[in-house]
Specification:
The structure is a single chain. This protein is of the alpha/beta class. The chain folds into two domains: 19-236, P-loop containing nucleotide triphosphate hydrolases (Rossmann fold), CATH 3.40.50; 239-308, Alpha-Beta Plaits, CATH 3.30.70.100. Helices cover 35% and strands 24% of the residues. It has eleven helices and 13 strands. The chain has helices at residues 57-64, 86-89, 108-118, 123-136, 152-164, 182-197, 209-215, 233-237, 250-259, 282-294, 308-322, and strands at residues 19-28, 31-41, 45-50, 72-77, 80-81, 93-96, 170-174, 201-205, 218-223, 226-232, 241-247, 274-279, 299-304. β9 (218-223) and β10 form a beta hairpin. The longest helix has 16 residues, at 182-197. It is globular, with a radius of gyration of 23 Å.
Length: 334
C-alpha cells in the first residue's frame, strides 16, 4: 500500500489510495442537493462526515457508493475513476445505508448468504462468511430469525454485517449508531477502530458528534451542499474551547479565577458552584486548573463544555448555516 499523504485536503491526497472527490455536484430537478463538495478519506483512518440535515451528506454518500452519478466533479476510489468504471469500484465498497431495507421473510443468515452469492461467492464460502460476521456483530443467536422480528438496533448490526460481506477496503456508513443501545455503541466504536487498523478506508456520517470524537481521525464538515472545512481530530483538540469549572464554593471559585486573571461567565440559572472559561489550548486548560488548585479552590469537575468536533461544528457549520460571521461574545467576569 502506498504511503498515506499527510494532509486531509482533497487536492493533496494521492489518487491511488482511499477516496478523493473534487467539486462534486448533484441536483434532483430544481433542488441542488450537492453544490460543490471536496472530500477525501485515507486508508487506515476513520473519516467523519458531519453536517446538518439537508446538507447533502446522504447524497454525497450515495455518490461515493457509486449509486448516484455526479452531475459535475471527479471521484476516485482506490485509484479508479468511479464514473468511468463503477462496476470495477463496487467490489471495493461496503455500503451501510441509514435503514436496512431487507427481504423481511428471509432470516438474518439467509440475507447475508444471498448478498455473498451476489458478489460471486460459492454457497460454502458465503455461508462461512455469514456465520463469521453474525458472530462479529453479536447476532449469532438470531441467525435463524426472520429479519422482520429484529429490533432497530439489531437491524443496524445486521446492516453492518451485510456491508462487510464482500470484505471491502472502503466502508461507507450512514448513521451506523442509530438505534443502538450504549453497549452496542461501544462495540461499534471498537469495530470501526479495528477496521481502520486493518488498513480500510472508513467513512462515517453521524449526528452523534460525541461518538465521532471517540472514533474519528479526521472530519469533513459540509453545509448547504458545500464543504466548509476539513480537519483532523488532533487539530480539533487544539482549538479554542469552552470549559466548565465546578467547585465546592462559588465565591471561592470566582475569586480564584479573578485572582488568576482568567475571564469567566456564570451559566444562567445555575444551581451549583460553576463558571465557564475559554482557553486556547489543552495546555492552557491544564494551567488554569493547576492555578485554581494552588489558589486553594476545591475543584470538583473541570471539562470541555462540548466535544472537539462539536466545537468546530458550532463555530463553522452552525455559523455558516445561520449566516453569522462570528459567535456572540461571552460576558466575562472581573
Amino acid at each position: 500500500m502506498p504511503d498515506a499523504p499527510t494532509s486531509v485536503e482533497p487536492t493533496s491526497v494521492q489518487h491511488d489510495v482511499g477516496i478523493v472527490a473534487t467539486g462534486l455536484a448533484r441536483a434532483f430537478g430544481s433542488v441542488q442537493a450537492v453544490k460543490h463538495i471536496d472530500f477525501a478519506a485515507r486508508p487506515g483512518e476513520v473519516t467523519a462526515l458531519i453536517g446538518p440535515n439537508g446538507s447533502g451528506k446522504t447524497t454525497l454518500l450515495l455518490m461515493l457508493a457509486s449509486l448516484l452519478k455526479p452531475d459535475a466533479g471527479t471521484l476516485h476510489i482506490g485509484g479508479l475513476e468511479v464514473a468511468a468504471d463503477p462496476r470495477a469500484v463496487r467490489p471495493m465498497i461496503g455500503w451501510m445505508p441509514d435503514t436496512l431495507g431487507v427481504w423481511e421473510a428471509l432470516t438474518a443468515r439467509e440475507i447475508l448468504v444471498s448478498i455473498g452469492k451476489l458478489y460471486g461467492m460459492d454457497r460454502a464460502t458465503s455461508e462461512a462468511r455469514a456465520d463469521d460476521l453474525l458472530e462479529l456483530v453479536k447476532l449469532t443467536d438470531l441467525a435463524a430469525h426472520p429479519s422482520r422480528v429484529l429490533s432497530r438496533g439489531q437491524q443496524q448490526r445486521l446492516s453492518l454485517a451485510r456491508a462487510l460481506m464482500n470484505d471491502p477496503s472502503v466502508l461507507l456508513l450512514d448513521e451506523p449508531a442509530s438505534g443502538l443501545d450504549p453497549g452496542a455503541r461501544i462495540d461499534l466504536r471498537n469495530l470501526l477502530r479495528k477496521f481502520a487498523g486493518e488498513g480500510r478506508t472508513v467513512v462515517v456520517s453521524s449526528h452523534v458528534l460525541s461518538e465521532l470524537d471517540e472514533v474519528a481521525d479526521a472530519a469533513v464538515f459540509v453545509a448547504a451542499g458545500r464543504t466548509v472545512r476539513n480537519q483532523t481530530v488532533k487539530e480539533a483538540d487544539e482549538q479554542k474551547r469552552g470549559y466548565s469549572v465546578r467547585a465546592l464554593d462559588q465565591e471561592a471559585l470566582l475569586g480564584g479565577l479573578t485572582a488568576q486573571g482568567v475571564l469567566y461567565s456564570v451559566p444562567a440559572g445555575q444551581r451549583r458552584a460553576e463558571a465557564l472559561v475559554e482557553v486556547a489550548t489543552e495546555a492552557q486548560a491544564a494551567d488554569v486548573l493547576r492555578r485554581l488548585i494552588e489558589h486553594g479552590v476545591a475543584v470538583t469537575a473541570f471539562a470541555p463544555t462540548v466535544g472537539a468536533l462539536e466545537e468546530t461544528y458550532m463555530s463553522t457549520v452552525y455559523e455558516h448555516e445561520s449566516g453569522n460571521s462570528a459567535a456572540a461574545p461571552k460576558e466575562a467576569g472581573k
